[in-house]
């Protein structure tokens, strides 16, 4: 870990009472992760978070992970995972959850701190009906009639003839501006093709007896233009990896205060999302290929978007074949955006949620009031009936520092323009899964560990961003900052600004992110749940 940041934490560690250590661990990750503070308790990082996006679930970005790969032998790589299509019921047939062929899905990387994309990985999808658009048929009497399902028998291999619909995708790397920069295709290291097969969703064990093996056949080694090291690529359905007490939180935090402030009950409630799937766009790229050259800044920023065409014409008489009943046209219009988790869900005001989804990091000054004067603390006062407990250090510069710029000495770029995105210091080595602190950097430091690779230094699947956010928004950052400004959040950020006091350290949603089952290597998110067992 950066030594200057470690020195800043020493006064906090020395001043901590042993009895408060468990609760401080909850807040810890926050001290380094205030950007989350901006977020707060909420449901899946960005599921159904804005009015318009609820009408277009296929382009709803739900979670974004960016971390140094901790799979054995892959520590020089960075994994980026963009999730879309929230709350997928495993039994959601007969069409399941194909991606939108008329949409543009992107993962953006800023590698010089100017709040503008330098690299954009652009995914486009296509769906092809079998038999040249006629579909698989069965002889019924003296007629061949098209079947109604996406499969006509067991599926084992990519492109099996029993699949009635084959979903494929392309990946393009755009350098510079995402619309006017230099576009180059990402190609298969085996054969050089630029079209990749996406596995069908986990229909059930009769259709796909071994889904883990089947999905694994869709992990590709790929060549990225300008990168000498082959990357890995996977696009397909995964088990939802985000853990949250979703219904309870949005029902005005319908849980006793005594429960959500007791660290012993950190896993007392069921994970609401445990029975759902999601669609992941996953890349593993060597960290040197994401930086701006060998001497470039080690800190990169990332966020995801999805865009639709500006106009569409609906066809009242769709023709035969697996063709959409709409004709899109016009410029791309961004309708989804996700960097740090939970921001649009519980930080941005309802009137501006669609605007945030259409915005770019370079324009984030327009949303500054939601960070400097957050409403969530007051809402928690009302929901939990604990009046007068909101932090008093307004404007909340403690949140601005970590949320918009990254933390100095940890994940702040050399020359940073304040903006909302997930930031990762690619020079900090990864930590094996078993040793990862679910509460991120600060939680680990206060526990005396050596895990410097967690949130907010990027985000790993194990990082419990909900608990971190709850603690931060109610002043945990100021409690850790102390009277001596140990964390550099400003002289006004001190324990006296936290009416809730040490109780702020104990907040959690009663669901433990660390117990979610994950894979030990790429693509890390677990095999999706089958529609039938």
Please characterize this protein's 3D structure.
- The chain is of the alpha+beta class and 533 residues long.
- It has a domain of 245 residues.
- Helices cover 19% and strands 23% of the residues.
- It has 15 helices and 16 strands.
- Strands 3, 4, 7, 8, 10, 14, 15 and 16 form an eight-stranded antiparallel β-sheet that branches. A six-stranded antiparallel β-sheet has the order 1-2-13-12-11-9, with no helix packed on it.
- A hairpin with a 6-residue loop joins strand 7 and strand 8.
- Helix 2 packs antiparallel against helix 13.
- The two termini are 45 Å apart.
- The N terminus is likely disordered.
| Percentage of residues in helical conformation | 10-25%
Query: Which stretches are low in confidence, meaning pLDDT under 50 for 5 or more residues running?
Result: 1-44
Structural class: alpha+beta
Main beta-sheet strand count, sense and barrel state: 8 strands, antiparallel
> Residue-averaged pLDDT, rounded?
88
Q: How large is the count of helical segments?
A: 15
Radius of gyration, in angstroms, nearest whole number: 23 Å
Assess the beta-strand content as a share of residues: 15-25%
CA-CA gap between termini: 45 Å
How many β-strand runs? 16
Shape: globular
**Oligomer type:** single chain
Task: Write a compact overview of the structure shown.
By secondary structure, the chain is α+β, with helices and mostly antiparallel strands.
